[in-house]
Amino acid sequence: MPPNYEEFSESQIKILQQFVSSTTGNVFVLRNLPEVIKGALFSRYSRSTLGLRSLLLKEFILSEDTAFTEIAGQFGEAHNDEHLFAIIKAKSFYDRILDGYGDDSIGELGGAHLAIENVSMIAAKHIEDARIGGSPLEKSTRYIYFDQKVGGEYAFYQEPILMTSAYRDLYLDTCNHLFQTYSDMIPQLTEIIEAKFPKNHHISQAAYKASLRAKVLDCLRGLLPASALTNMGVFGNGRFFESLVQKMHTQNLAELNELGKSMQGELKKVIPSFVRRAEIGHKYQQSFSDFTEEVKKELKLLAASSLVDAEAVSSPGVKLIESDPDALYKVAGALLFEYTAAPLDQLQNMCRQMPQEDLMRVLDAASVPRENRRHKSPRALEHANFTFEIVADFGVYRDLHRHRLLTQERQLLSCNYGYFLPSEIANTDLEKPYISAMETAKEAYQVIAQELPEEAQYIVPMAYNVRWYFHINLRALQWLCELRSSPAGHPSYRYIAQEMAKQICDHQPQFERFFKFVDYEGYELGRLDQEVRIQQKAENRG
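^ thats the sequence. predicted structure below, dont judge the formating
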């Protein structure tokens, strides 16, 4: 690597060592700095001839305007009045820097770890709808029992409009009944599955119990209503959080509005300059709210006046509804592009004229060397786009929704499209109470939805089907299908991943080579091998 030409005195080095991982190397990490300082520092960095360490010294550490000593010097310590005054004094300085460049990407230079606890699964999905710039992680229904009571009550969101309506008792009784059925079935289903799949002597007890629990909870999660409370952690940059909070402010559900206000308040404590435009009353937020409201209003009117049969596609399944007939040539041409001096359109036209054998050699060059699913294919595969419509239970939607490098939209949760009955419960003593719980929830939903269709979503059990679509490119689809078909996955989303791959291969057989790590097998205790490996690693560490 080229030498570093910056020179610092001993006193400067001593100062810098607190804030950078190296005072001499060309590659180093910032540390012990608040997000607002890091963001503003990088903002200036893009338009300065100085190296980052020199810039940090000259314009931040040694500048009175930044109140650097008061902020960074007490970073992580309790905030006293002097410290809070320093933040107020410095805020205008940082805002001037961030505003001065007029580039929204500046908001990506600072970030925060946000914990969000005791929110409904509906709220969690809205947060995870924000795709770019954030990384959410949600409490798992596979590894955690959701029947734990808090203060003697099951943990589900008590939606304020429902709780002050004539539907209050119906809502509470239905949610409690679903949780109680879920709780009652855990030991019973555990016995059934344990008898059906007894532990082999070579499998450790810990691995067997873990896979057994995952199997039981995978089967029973469908009983949980969408109001069930969950926890999540989200890491995101400032731009991500600003956009997310703006959207939360425009939602109709009270929970999302309140959550947006809480998120705004907490993020202001860490990255205030990055989320200030999402404050209620700010001109940007007001403009965005007006725009969103106008779009919703007009589209709802048009949808209500349309002649589309709402029940036209209601059976569970996966359907490829759109693909590009030129996808093959677009992908092949894009694969060659980097290694030629020719324009892309000429390469794609050339691929149309190319003998089939030579065209397949181009595709093979990008697929044959792959040895496992983690060998990501070239970006040229992103030139092939497909649209799938999926009708499956909300639990499956939650799993597949985590893939964000695609376009997906869902309709409101309802009880209109049937529900999923796990094969492990069918034809057992548990089938009757399971079906009874589903029918009870449907009856309650239909009563509430006549007046409050959005609030009625909270009562819908996860086993009920929802309709959504994926608009996805071949590269993202390859990753999704190979990952979600793996043995450790939930059987329901494994089927969807397998089915999407099959439909693409049937529709465009030349693309089958890109799905060679899709696992089409069926597994009874799918988590078992994974749990065995986890236990072996733990033993090796021990």
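The two ends are 40 Å apart (CA to CA).
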